[in-house]
Amino acid sequence: MQYGKFSKDGSEYVITRFDTPRPWINLIANETYGLYLSQNSFGFSFYRDSQTVKVTYADVTGYVPTHPQTGKFVFLRDMDTGHCWSNLPMHTARGYSGFRCVHGQGYSRLSARCHGIQTDFLALVPIGADPVEIWEITLRNCSKRTRRIKAFPYQQWLLSAPTGITDTLTYTRVAYRPDLHAIVARMTNSTAPLQYDAFMAADFEPEEHDCNYDRFMGAYGSLSTPAAVIAGRATNSSASGERMCGVLARTFELAPGESATFRILTGVSHADAEVKTLMARYLSDGACATALRGVKDYWKRIREGMRVQTPDPTINLTANIWAKWQNYHTTRHARGAYRGFRDLLQDTMGFTPVQPAYTRQALIDVLQHQYANGLCIRGWSPISGKLDTRKHRDSPCWIPLTLSAYLRETGEFAFLDVPVDYLDTGRATVFEHALAGMRRLHEERAPNGLCIIGDGDWNDSLDEVAVKGLGQSVWLTIAAVYAMHALADIAGACGRSGPCGQLRAWAQELKTAVNEHGWDGRWYLYAITDDGDPVGSDRNAEGKIHLNVQTWALFAGVAEGARAASLLQVIDETLATRYGPVLMHPAYTGYVKGIGKVSGKNPGQAENGPIYSHGVLFKMLADFTRGRGDKAFESFLQICPASPNNTNEPDRFQGEPFTATRYLIGPACPERFGAAPYSYHTAMPAWTMQLLYERMLGVRPSFDAMIIDPCIPAAWKKFEVVRPLRGATYRVRVSNPDHVQTGVRSVRVDGKKIPSNRIPLFSDGALHTVDVEMGSV
Ligand code: GLC
Predict the structure, then answer these.
(1) Distance from the alpha carbon of residue 677 to the mean position of ligand 1, in angstroms
(2) pLDDT of residue 166
(3) Percentage of the chain surpassing pLDDT 70?
(4) Cα 227 from chain centroid (whole Å)
(5) 617 C-alpha to center of ligand 1: Å?
(6) What is the C-alpha to C-alpha distance for residues 134 and 114, in angstroms, rounded to an integer?
């Protein structure tokens, strides 16, 4: 591919052209702080929330930082010739050579040569919770004469706060502080729910500095012609109520072949003492190298934990490296400080095998946003404390799924008895919270037995189905069946037979209602509006068939017999496209009252008929349920950014090859069909983690056993999964001599044959080898 490729071990993406189809952006972040950085250093830093707390400026609107307009640069000036340039090509490659960007996990390294000076720029965020980023810059003189090069490392501050106050400038002052040897940008807005300072320091004593953007750039200057760089002197400005920047300038004299390295530390602080502590920690000798080693070790350990070896490089790259990396970020940052109830549950569900303790805490946080009547809110902000009190009725459905992942991982059934407060009054155990959600779904149904959709369900954009409070969702009713069985499984596994039986009985009632009132003739309806009109019916002019309701009907066991047998074929016939199955068809071409905002969205985009990654993964789960390993694999390769389907067509796909996207644009938007407009903000990595490991390769912990149940492409002859669980490690080696997609013929554990595909769990902390032969029995 013409723009770049994965490194040999897959842990880095190497970009060799500065003009990728759109900026290819790395997310470099720890628990509290991070930056989005493109291959040519455009991007911005954020603190705790990538959407509302932007520490530096980038002119990015919306959730996803696809086109930052400014970033982190090192302007350079030859003090003898007066030539000025920046370390990387911004808008044209003219004059530059050797451009190279390495996006790694936790760092990026950006290099180019111009005017005989090679510049290497490393940006990293240390592991842990220190809200800082480090830049390490090396200038090398590749010319034949001694050079005096003045460097102006630069960024533009914003210091936004999650308040809705747009006029951040009025509340911010920035100046160089000689006592600290640092620039400090101070927020003075006493009403902001999150108050912080930003700072920028170097490991050298700056000759000059600038804090005032207009003074540094010149009133009419731009990134390609900063006035101070042209003049060869920063202006020692400060700023209050004016546009702000951070610049610390220094001249380096370099003999031919000689190089010089310096470091910049920038980030967030709350007091001068904290600036001093962070500078001592990260600007001392060897500190940057130590931080980089820490970052690399952290990610290496994660890569080398649970892992796979299959015949397909895309599956290996995704399961071992990039889905884990992105899933870490979705649990912390992808939706910013907005904690979506369902989003956090899904994201942590996927990451449970890697960090179960994080899931445990997330479950507690989430349950605190449920009311005693079982209803849950749509989301909340941990920074401002603001609640999004829309009551999407699907919210409780995700609790049992994540709870199941946690209990299967850890076996900590005592967690079910931990008391957690309700949002309104009282408290109840974790199990009772989960049960209250299911009870509410069972109670809040229309006379036809289907669940009332309320403010919405998974599909946030179907938001007018029940404005009068009567509309029902068939998908939601099915999701409730799925969740009730998941919770019944948990109850059964820990001797709560009463609730177990009750949940199964509720699920049966809902299932009957779906099959009586939710069937359209060839597929399931999505919903029924307040006025009794069908949504997702052959009788509709647009939005006739929705993917999720069909796939969930299959894996929730709601569709049976002839319906189950025909549904996937119906999907293949009506929803398949060359880039994957669409979420809904045909897309709405204009707003329809009673449906909601989905109908007003651009055709082929968001929920209006795109190839929604989430939806495709649910489709794969339906494929696995029906033994279609080949079909699931094919669908995954269609949406996976690292797959040759997409890396071979980068100008069509446009997105980063290492980052999952929320959706690919659907055929209803022919000019952008197959483009990936929406990186980072997606539950795709979480479902990828769960489905690849547990369903495709089929190494799936249950509460008391390791189940081996693969559903793979028939062409695969063998594969291997290494799965640590509760201290022991299972090395599962699977052979497939008959080229089947599913079916286990024999299992040997440490050489001894066992009678089924359920391996009793070991608690000896040892490595156990499991040899599996697939085939018909
Ligand atoms: C976004 C939301 C997710 C929702 C989906 C469909 O991805 O984050 O929660 O289910 O849109 O509306």
Answers:
(1) 15
(2) 57
(3) 99
(4) 39
(5) 14
(6) 23
d(CA 357, CA 531): 46
**Contact in structure between 437 and 373 (CB atoms under 8 Å):** no
Report the SS3 class of residue 403. Answer: helix
Amino acid at position 533, single letter: D
Q: Which of 662, 30, 660 is nearest to 332 (CA)?
A: 30
Distance (Å, whole) CA 70 – CA 57: 7
Q: Which two tokens stand for residue 579?
A: 């880039």
For ligand 1, the distance from its centroid to the CA atom of residue 494, given in whole angstroms, is: 33
Tell me if 702 CB under 6 Å of ligand 1.
no
CB-based contacts of 290, cutoff 8 Å, min separation 6: none
One-letter-per-residue 3-state SS of 726-754: CCEEEEEEEECCCCCCECEEEEEECCEEE
**What are the residues whose beta carbons fall under 8 Å from the beta carbon of 609, sequence distance 6 or more?**
582, 583, 584, 585, 586, 587, 588, 603, 666, 667, 668
- Predicted local confidence at residue 192, as pLDDT: 81
**pLDDT given at position 165:** 53
Kindly report the backbone phi and psi dihedral angles of residue 365, in degrees, each rounded to the nearest multiple of 5, phi listed first.
Answer: -55, -45
Name the residue among 328, 342, 500, 339 with its Cα closest to residue 416.
500
Query: 607 CB less than 6 Å from ligand 1?
Result: yes
- Report in angstroms the alpha-carbon separations of 232 from 115, 143, 270: 16, 21, 33
Q: Which two tokens stand for residue 464?
A: 């007018």
| Contacting residues for 301 by C-beta, under 8 A, at least 6 apart | none
H or E element, residue 37: strand 33-38
**DSSP 3-state assignment of 503?**
helix
- Mind telling me the catalytic residues? 460
- Burial-class residue 671 by CB neighbours within 10 Å (0-12, 13-18, 19+): exposed
The rounded radius of gyration (Å) of the Cα atoms in the chain is 28
Whole-model pTM? 0.97
Q: What is the mean pLDDT of the chain?
A: 96
CA dihedral sign, ordered 504, 624, 609, 390: positive
- Number of CB atoms found within 10 A of residue 180's CB: 16
Q: Tens digit of pLDDT for each residue in 543-586?
A: 999 999 999 999 999 999 999 999 999 999 999 999 999 999 99
pLDDT band at residue 164 under the 50/70/90 scheme: low
- Is residue 374 scored above 60 in pLDDT? yes
Length of the chain: 777
Each residue's pLDDT tens digit, 461-493: 999 999 999 999 999 999 999 999 999 999 999
Residue with CA nearest ligand 1 atom 8 = 343
Block residue for tokens 């700072």: 199
Query: Which residue has a Cα nearest atom 5 of ligand 1?
Result: 459
The answer, yes or no, to whether residue 438 has pLDDT greater than 70, is yes
Q: Which residue matches tokens 């009567």? A: 470
Judged against a pLDDT cut of 70, whether residue 167 lies above it is answered with no
